């Protein structure tokens, strides 16, 4: 397959590297010139439990650069950048191109539908861990999986071909007709842990230092799942709470992406996670007070951080 990966950060680089290593024709699309140059010069260094090696058969370029239309476009940009990124590469989305989103949050299908026919959208969720260590260097340790399906629920041959390609790359991909259940579970997980860590500055395990942290996370999970049920998605609440509790107990020192963005003075994905839940809750009349307060707190903290970054960038008078 001709595969393009939009957003060659930690996850995009890991997926692109493993797919290229398995024999697919892969192009990484990103605007980080230092990262792209490092890959051009020496290949992508990939460290996993299977070893430390360099993948040298990757193509890299900016999204707006000319190129061939891929069979599959995998989107790994942050949700807030989806429309802008797809606008830059609209010329690469052909009538036969399928687009797979493995992004966090809700609203990704709606954004993709502005650029590609709905029947060509694939949606999924992944639990693979990945860190961008340095330009041209990605690291992933531990196991993960992908659950995916067409957004409209139709099992087309292209869905099966995509799953085979991802699975052959060692990414443990399963076709899941109930993929929306997995997506809402991850939204609940992220709404609880990402937002709490972002406003407290705690690592995930730090939330367990006092009972209040665990209780807040559990309450947010319950609110998100109540909204999910109004969308026809029924989730095992205890299973979802158990995943959150496991992360608090075991993810020692881990800083979720929302906290990393906050510390770096970048915009977070709060609107696609807590914000999207609050919006849907308002439409269906479900109260989500804890989720909404965390949304408001992250907005305030994010605005303060962005203001500090802007001021620090100003030249001295």
From TrEMBL:
It catalyses: (R)-pantoate + NADP(+) = 2-dehydropantoate + NADPH + H(+). Keywords: NADP, Oxidoreductase, Pantothenate biosynthesis. The keyword Oxidoreductase applies. Pathway: Cofactor biosynthesis; (R)-pantothenate biosynthesis; (R)-pantoate from 3-methyl-2-oxobutanoate: step 2/2. GO terms for biological process: pantothenate biosynthetic process. Its EC number is 1.1.1.169. Residues 180-301 form the Ketopantoate reductase C-terminal domain. GO terms for molecular function: 2-dehydropantoate 2-reductase activity; NADP binding. SUPFAM superfamilies: 6-phosphogluconate dehydrogenase C-terminal domain-like (SSF48179), NAD(P)-binding Rossmann-fold domains (SSF51735). One of its GO terms (cellular component) is cytoplasm. Residues 3-148 form the Ketopantoate reductase N-terminal domain. The keyword NADP applies. NCBIfam families: apbA_panE (TIGR00745). Catalyzes the NADPH-dependent reduction of ketopantoate into pantoic acid. Belongs to the ketopantoate reductase family. This is 2-dehydropantoate 2-reductase. It comes from Trinickia terrae.
């Amino acid at each position: 397959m001709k595969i393009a990966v939009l957003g060659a950060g930690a996850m995009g680089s890991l997926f692109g590297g493993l797919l290229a290593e398995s024999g697919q024709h892969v192009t990484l699309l990103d605007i980080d010139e230092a990262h792209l140059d490092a890959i051009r010069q020496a290949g992508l260094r990939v460290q996993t439990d299977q070893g430390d090696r360099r993948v040298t058969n990757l193509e890299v370029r900016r999204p707006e650069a000319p190129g061939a239309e891929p069979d599959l476009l995998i989107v790994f940009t942050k949700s807030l950048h989806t429309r802008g990124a797809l606008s830059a590469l609209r010329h690469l989305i052909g009538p036969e191109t399928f687009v797979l989103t493995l992004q966090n949050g809700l609203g990704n299908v709606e954004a993709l539908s502005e650029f590609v026919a709905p029947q060509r959208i694939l949606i999924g969720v992944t639990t693979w861990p990945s860190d961008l260590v340095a330009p041209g260097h990605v690291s992933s340790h531990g196991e993960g999986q992908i659950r995916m399906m067409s957004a409209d629920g139709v099992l087309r041959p292209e869905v099966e071909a995509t799953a085979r390609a991802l699975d052959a790359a060692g990414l443990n991909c399963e076709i899941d007709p109930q993929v929306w259940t997995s997506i809402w579970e991850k939204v609940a997980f992220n709404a609880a842990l990402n937002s709490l860590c972002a406003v407290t500055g705690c690592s995930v395990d730090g939330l367990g230092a006092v009972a209040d942290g665990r209780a807040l996370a559990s309450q947010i999970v319950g609110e998100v799942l109540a909204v999910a049920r109004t969308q026809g998605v029924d989730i095992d609440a205890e299973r979802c709470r158990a995943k959150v509790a496991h992360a608090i107990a075991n993810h020692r020192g881990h800083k979720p992406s929302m906290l990393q963005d906050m510390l770096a003075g970048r915009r977070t994905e709060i609107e696609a996670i807590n914000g999207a839940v609050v919006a849907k809750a308002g439409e269906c009349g479900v109260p989500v007070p804890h989720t909404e307060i965390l949304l408001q707190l992250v907005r305030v903290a994010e605005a303060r951080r962005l203001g500090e970054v802007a001021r620090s960038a100003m030249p001295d008078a």
